[in-house]
C-alpha cells in the first residue's frame, strides 16, 4: 500500500453547542408510503434483486445503476365508503445495467417489475400488481468511448468483480456525513412515523394509510408535531366518521409520544381537513391520485430530513453497491458515528471525503468531531482504531446491502 492509499484521519474537538442545546430545531420525515420514499425503496430493492440473481447464477455481481427511479401515480375513484384505483401506478427505471452475461440472458425487466411490486405491496393496502402496476424500463447497456466492450456487456467471469476485490476503487468524488445520537425531536419524528406504519398500529387501525409525513419543531422545551396521515376511503362512511377516527388516532399518537420519550407534544393531525376536506385515499398514498415520486427527494440516509444538521445530498438508493462511495460511505458515516458515540458517550459528527479512483478502504479524508471532547491521546487512539477497522471492512457494507439490505430511508 502506498502513502496515497492511506486515509488522512482527523479527530477534532468541537466546541459548538449540541443539537439538544440549540434554541430551535426543525425535523421532517416522509413515511414509507410517500411517493419519494417509495422510489428510494424500489430502487434499492431492484439493486438487491439484481445483485442476488447475479451472485446465484454467476457468482459475481454485474455492474448496474438503478438510482433514477420515478413513480407516476395512478387515478382513483374515491368517496365515502368507496376507494378504487382506476388507473395504475407507473414506475419508470432509468440507469445502466447488463441484460446478459455472455450468452446467458439476465431477466432484468422481470426483476425490476418484481422489485416494484414487492415494495408497493408492502407500503399500501390492497395493492394488486397485476392490476395496479405498469413498469417502464429505460435501463441501457451503452458502452463508453474507446472501450472494446463495456462493463455492462460482460462476456467472461473476468469482466465481473468479486465483492471485496482489492482492485475496487471509488467510482466518484463524494462527500458524506453522519452524526449520533439523534436528538429527542429527531427520535420523536422518526419514532412516530414508524409507529403509525408499524404492524401493531395498522392491526388496531386498519383504516389508516401509509403516506404519513411528520414535521417536528422544538423551541426550547416546547415540542410540536404535525402529522399528515391518510385514511382509506372505503373504510370511512362519512365526514363525521372521519373526524371521529382521526381523533382516536391522534390520542393514540399522543400516548405513544409520551411513552417513547416522556414528551407530550402539541399535536396537529391532517391540517388540510380544517377546510372540511378529509384526507382520504384508495390504497393509502397520494400516489393514488397522480402524485409523482423521485429517488433522492426525501429522507437522508438516517431516515430524516434535518436542515439544521450536516447532511449529504447524495441519493444512495439503487446505486451500485460494489464501488459507489456515495452509497457505501453514507452507510459508513452513519454507522461510524453511532459506534463512536456508543464507545465514547460524546455527540459525534463524521465526515468522509473521497476522490474518484481512491481505494475503497482509503477515502482521502475522514474527519471525526466530538462535541465537548477535551483532546486525550488514549481516547483519540481508541477512536482512530474504530475508524481504521471500519475502513478495512467496507466490503462488509456491500455484502450487507446485497444479502440482508440496509434501510436508507
From TrEMBL:
Keyword check for Transferase: yes
Regions crossing the membrane: none
Pfam families: AdoMet_Synthase
E.C. number(s) listed in UniProt: 2.5.1.6
Gene Ontology MF annotations: methionine adenosyltransferase activity
Record key words, sorted: Transferase
Keyword Disulfide bond: no
InterPro entries, per database record: AdoMet_synthase_2, AdoMet_synthase_2_family, AdoMet_synthase_3
Superkingdom of the organism of origin: Bacteria
Family, per entry: Belongs to the AdoMet synthetase 2 family.
PANTHER family (UniProt xref): S-ADENOSYLMETHIONINE SYNTHASE
Name assigned to this protein: S-adenosylmethionine synthetase
Organism: Nocardia goodfellowii
